[in-house]
Amino acid sequence: MPELPEAEAYRRxxxxxxxxxxxxxxxxxxxxxxxxxxxxxxxxxxxAARVLDVRRHGKRVLVDVDSGHVLGLQFGMTxxxxxxxxxxxxxxxxxxxxxxxxxxxxxVRFEEGGVxxxxxxxxxxxxxxxxxxxRLGPDAAVVRPAVLARALxxxxxxxxxxxxxxxxxxxxxxxxxxxxxxxxxxxxRRRSAxxxxxxxxxxxxxxxxxxEDLLARGGSHLGDLGPERRPGGRCPKxxxxxxxxxxxxxxxxxxxxxxx
Length: 260
Hints:
Layout: H1 4-14, E1 22-26, H2 39-46, E2 51-57, E3 60-65, E4 70-74, E5 80-83, E6 86-87, E7 104-110, E8 115-119, E9 126-129, H3 145-153, H4 159-164, H5 174-184, H6 197-217, E10 243-247, E11 250-254
Antiparallel strand pairs: 1-7, 2-3, 3-4, 4-9, 5-6, 5-8, 7-8, 10-11
Helix pairs in contact: 1-6, 3-6, 5-6
């Protein structure tokens, strides 16, 4: 976390900054600047520039400004975005609910008033000027069925590992992947290339629907499976004890009865 639902909530929050002009940039943690970005470049690109649009691709929020540059924001596991003191997401599973001044890694102040700020206790996110998105796959919320099917069919890796690969589909993290596979009744350990056409179609439908559902609920951790992802957890569908393993480098939970 944050995953695509959180990033989309941040994008929607930041839309309120469209039309505002930047008057100051704060970069108290230079380590948080990524991809060769430095303080001078950020200030040159952003100060006096007006926000034109706020977009999202996968887990990244992209802020277009009229200087011709794009501000890229990533949030890692613990990053949150705030505008004018309002948080885009009310709760994150792995992030403290309190706000410490020292956790502000980046902020911009606007001529019209207000501040856009990134809080990140564990410093796992980052800020990039003009980020390169060429290595990212299509956004998970809008990926076409045939595109997803081809990407999965081309690999013998476990299906969960493919879903987590941001070059295959951008935006899916560990919690979303487990929830989608549980809803689609697909074992996360299955080889991607072994999925049948009907299973691929079902997986795509549940991917798109689950992302919409989790956004409406308020976070990636608010799925039906989420509360049961623990020792002793049981499948919300049939009560079977959940299985646990490491798949794609991440702790994975699934129902051995109905996920095949």
